Amino acid sequence: MTDGISRRKFVTTVAATGAGLTIVPRHVLGRGFQAPSDTVNIATVGIGGMGGSNTRALMSQNIVAVCDVDWGYAESRFTQYQADLARMQGATSPQGQGQGQRPRPALSKPQMDANARRPAQNSTANLKRFLDEQLPKLKRYSDYREMLDKQKDIDGIVVATPDHMHAAIASLAMDSGKHVYVQKPLCWSVHEARHLAQKAKDNPKVVTQMGNQGHSQDGARTGYEYITGGAIGDIREVHVWTNRPLGYWPQGIPRPAPLPAVNPDRPLRWDGSGVEARIAAALAGNFPVPDKLSWDLFLGVAPPVDYHPIYHPFNWRGWVDWGQGALGDMGAHLIDHPFWSLNLGMPTSVETISTPFNGATYPSATTTYYEFAARGNMPAVKLTWYDGGFNPPKPEEIGDERLNGEGGVLYIGAKGKMLQDTYGANPRLLPKSLHESSGAPKPKLARIAHEEHEMNWVEAIKGKAEISSPFDYASRLVEVMLLGVVALRAGGKIYYDGAKGHVTNTVKMGNRTVDPNEFLTRNYREGFKLT
Predict the structure, then answer these.
(1) Which helix (H) or strand (E) segment is 495 a member of?
(2) How wide is the angle at C-alpha 334 spanned by C-alphas 333 and 335, nearest 5°?
(3) Contact in structure between 399 and 407 (CB atoms under 8 Å)
(4) pTM attached to this predicted model
(5) Where are the beta strands (DSSP E) in 35-192?
(6) Angle, to 10 degrees, between the axis of helix 471-490 and the axis of helix 325-334?
(7) How far apart are CA 421 and CA 279, in angstroms?
(8) What pLDDT sits at residue 162?
């Protein structure tokens, strides 16, 4: 630009100007120069899994860089894009779907989280443009620190790595003035949630978004309007459940390890600990690190652990070092809705019970009991979370119908009940007569264009939309979720001072007393500390 203002500074200034922004015409800037307000330069950190879906949704923009610790996995994503394009072109041919119809690409397993989204931006033209024009000149990195240091044309970053690296990458990106879209859960610990919230507050021109895409969908907003409009009266009880981990990733298993030396006078028994030792030994082995995987960069902030294919790709979610189990995976899609519509704030107490927990990988199933204090004229609320196959009691109003096996939210109100599916979809009042007599709720919230969560972030960067799930909101939601994990690891009920971010009690665990506050944060490896 002739006045010397950097492209990134222009875009961040645009974001601060609000929805009244006028797009700069191309002729004002000269032939061949693309207006900064037209497109955003985006880098994806972690494209092999959910980041691949996020990137697809953003292909109307400029994808200028990709960073991934496993380029074998990342390359497979580009191969999948080629296959998707061939399928989509076939589907839109005269022999395919027919003119004017938009194909819905099939979702691979790492994209399961996107299964409620309408692929409004995932057009054939955008994908073809990415593959033909952007992919050949795409800058590739393994270390996000190198990318942020070297590549100065990045406006926004998508962080779709394992949970344990979200905060470190997002924090450094915000220090660099980059807009950030971070997959759910926002981070790995309560301390990180508060750190990112403060970082966003300190950088008001940076547009932040957490990837809980249901927050941008119409069904979630209708559910909010039912609840806040008083359709079922005062609510004192909420039940939230998911079928995860189901068969998606392993939990409740030991870390791979050889059998310990056994005293011949005391042979290994076939009791619980003996069977667990044998399972660990069955998983053990010498597995070389794949050639294109930078294992040390995968570990990042976490303690050193030898590579094993049971950890990566995708299965990291069930391991305490890197993930947050089913609660971290689906809580942002489910707890989001009562947290939002009931303005819950921080819980006063949290207790998690579970199937056996060995401290290395999360239990096969948990139930977490949250208590929230009264808020203004709204009564105190008890919220119960279930995963791994545990479900709440079925409301009698649904008759022979079964609760949604994937997951959902059940509100118990003074005048009735309400159900929502995962992502806040399909809100309906119970009994059916109440739903029919109430009619649609009075609109209170704007609807997000195309329900496209990633593009909501882009439109907010351009100053054309209000951001859906900024860190100010997302950090508080994730703090509530992660307190359930804190209670699990502490081994007992915790009492929480939300204003101070501090657990006020200790927990007796066996012969020792545990301070649950130690689970609010972690020790960071040198080179990966929060900035």
Answers:
(1) strand 494-497
(2) 115
(3) no
(4) 0.88
(5) 41-45, 62-67, 139-141, 156-159, 179-182
(6) 150
(7) 36
(8) 97
Q: Would you say 355 and 349 are in contact if contact means Cβ atoms under 8 Å apart?
A: no
Summarised one tens digit per residue, pLDDT across range 290-342 is 999 999 999 999 999 999 999 999 999 999 999 999 999 999 999 999 999 99
241 strand-pairing partners: 386, 408
Paired with 179 in beta bridges are 156
Task: Report the first-to-last Cα separation within the chain, whole angstroms.
Answer: 31
pLDDT confidence of residue 265: 83
Determine contact, residues 164/328, Cβ cutoff 8 Å: no
**C-beta of residue 192 within 8 angstroms of C-beta of residue 530:** yes
Could you tell me the two tokens for 103?
């194909």
Tokens encoding 457: 């972030």
Token readout for 375 is 């808020």
Using left for φ > 0, alpha for ψ between -120 and 50, and beta otherwise, residue 147 falls in: alpha
User: What pLDDT sits at residue 92?
Assistant: 57
Look at the alpha carbons of 473, 477, 480, 481 in this order and tell me if their dihedral is positive or negative.
negative
What phi and psi, each to the nearest 5 degrees, are found at residue 408?
175, -175
User: How far is it, in rounded angstroms, from Cα 399 to Cα 6?
Assistant: 62
Low-confidence residues of the chain: pLDDT under 70: 1-37, 91-122, 450-451
